[in-house]
Amino acid sequence: METKLQLPLPPVVAALLRTLQAAGHQAFVVGGCVRDSLLGRAPEDWDICTSAQPGEVEALFQGRRLLLNGKKHGTVAVVEGGKSWEITTFRCDGAYSDGRHPDAVRFVPDVRQDLARRDFTVNAMAWSPAAGLVDPFGGQADLRAGVLRCVGDPNARFAEDALRVLRAPRFAAQLGFALEPGTAAAARRCRGGVALVSPERIFTELDKLLAGAQAGRVLAQYGEILAGALPEILPCIGCTQPSRWHCYDVWQHTAVAVGAVEAHALAQTLTGHGDARGARVLRWAALLHDLGKPACRTEDADGTAHFPGHNQRGGRMAREILLRLRAPASLTEGAAALVAVHDAPLPAADADILRLLHRRGAVFLRRLCQLKLADLAAHAQNAAVTARWQEVTQFAARMETLAADGCYRLDRLAVNGGDVLAAGLRPGPAVGQALDILLNAVMDGTLPNERTALLAALQRGFL
Ligand code: ATP
Ligand code: MG
After folding, report:
1. What are the tens digits of pLDDT across the range 298-316?
2. Contact 231, 200 (CB under 8 A)
3. Which contacts qualify for 430-436: CB closer than 8 Å, 24 or more apart?
4. Cα gap 253→380, rounded to integer Å
5. Which residues surround ligand 2, an ion (CB under 5 A)?
6. Residue 56: predicted pLDDT
7. Is 44 in the pocket of ligand 1 (CB under 6 A)?
8. Which of 186, 128, 120, 166 is nearest to 147 (CA)?
9. Are the C-beta atoms of residues 104 and 94 closer than 8 Å to each other?
10. Which member of 124, 188, 204, 440 has the greatest number of CB atoms within 10 A?
11. Distance from the CA of 163 to the center of ligand 1, in angstroms?
12. Minimal CA–CA distance to 441: which of 354, 359, 375, 378?
């Protein structure tokens, strides 16, 4: 049954549909924009599909700015309002002999054939003002039930294109949906195919998943599927941890830690400090922070597990994984550096905190505190864990105070290079060395950060 319901189309899209229809073609909005509109969410982009052949679309919009690089595959894009609006001829895909790309596309006359090539029922709906909703696979019912279900046989669909194996948990995390059991089982079975997918596309799916409102639950539920992208996950599943600190195995712990990044508003803390990139770095660091544990696991005489060296090993693995996925360099370096020290103790003395600020900077330390809190939120809740939580929050508070007005950078030192030269040092590397020595003395508390005291120290030959 097709229902007549209204979708709020952007005026450009409504006009494109009208032009196509006025020329005697069928035209619909299709896929993600229909799904998101029915959910009451603002769509990322609007895709149009039509019975018109690509050449007909091109002719119809002659005189407009067009992008024709996708024409062979049926897509003509009209540029308007600084955006490009894709119009794709109804098509079905040929065989997928490489598990990635259809060997050929074939243009077809019926929108239902076009919908049949799409991945999930909730993505396989089309709508137009004239025809209403076209929903041959029960997408609307699955949308209401919060279910992601493959169109057709899930094993065949995942075998055709293994990117879908990752799109399933990605949409589950974004939309808060569950995978229909047959779809989940097939995704687990077909996860090996993800090795054929380009690293950039794997990265994009994982990145969107991690930013999803239900990332933690999806990681917990679908770890085996995600192991298609990150085989390092498998040994974490069932890797037990000492009950004094932990109530989860390494993978469940990881999933809860990723969830805590959102739930505890930790990421927002970073954004609030102007660290707009920090939230993403934090999500990836939480995902990767304990992947080094299985390889480092030892047991002492009474059977208690220990993970010596898992910080550094995890840091190396994080870097390898993000390089492998061609992640942006700032993300790779940022996340790997956090993982490499995530479990190291934090100092309490001002001199040590100032030295850390000097070496790492406030942005890094703030991210580290947030990672530690997400990590601790995924521990057993007992007095020992609460004490660790308090250590982190106390460090964070003191660190912020010192970051605001403490002297841990040369530009905050009460003397500068000119003063050192005036005190008689010869120009050259000795000037920088003298300033470093003074800065260290100030951080240690052996000298106050006062101009007269520092100049006097220079005169005394303190250096
Ligand atoms: P979003 O843009 O929010 O990530 P989307 O559903 O719009 O989600 P796109 O990648 O933009 O996803 O694709 C648009 C539509 O094309 C999808 O809704 C789906 O119908 C179809 N589609 C995309 N990728 C695939 C795929 N790998 N296999 C089958 N159909 C796909
Ligand atoms: Mg889209």
Report:
1. 999 998 989 899 999 999 9
2. no
3. 433/463, 434/458, 434/463, 435/410, 436/410
4. 10
5. 32, 45
6. 97
7. yes
8. 120
9. yes
10. 124
11. 11
12. 354
Tokens of 16: 């494109």
Residue among 353, 343, 324, 321 nearest 444 (CA): 353
Tell me the backbone φ, ψ of residue 212, rounded to 5 degrees: -70, 150
Instruction: Give residue 3's Cα distance to chain centre.
Output: 37
| Residues 201-231: tens digit of each pLDDT | 999 999 999 999 999 999 999 999 999 999 9
What is the rounded CA–CA span in Å between residue 215 and residue 234? 18
Beta strand 178-179 with 132-134 is unpaired
- The whole-number pLDDT of residue 252 equals 98
CB atoms within 10 A of CB 410: 15
Q: Looking at the chain, how many residues does it have?
A: 463
Q: Residue 64 is encoded by which pair of tokens?
A: 């407009």
Query: Are the CB atoms for 199 and 325 separated by under 8 Å?
Result: yes
Closest CA to 20 of 71, 74, 82, 88: 88
Measured CA angle at 347 (ends 343, 352), to 5 deg: 130
Does the CB atom of residue 160 touch ligand 1 within 6 A? Answer: no
> How far is residue 423's CA from residue 456's CA, in Å, rounded to a whole number?
9
Could you tell me the two tokens for 19?
């032009």
**Could you give phi then psi for residue 79, rounded to 5 degrees?**
-95, 125
Ligand 2 centroid to Cα of residue 44, in Å, is 6
Residue type at 168 in one-letter notation: A
- pTM for this model (two decimals): 0.93
SS3 37: helix
Return d(Cα 443, Cα 446) in angstroms, integer.
8
Between 429-444 and 451-459, two packed helices, what is the crossing angle to 10 degrees?
Answer: 120
200 Cβ partners below 8 Å, 6+ apart? Answer: 325, 326
> Residue 331 Cα, ligand 1 centroid: separation in angstroms?
26
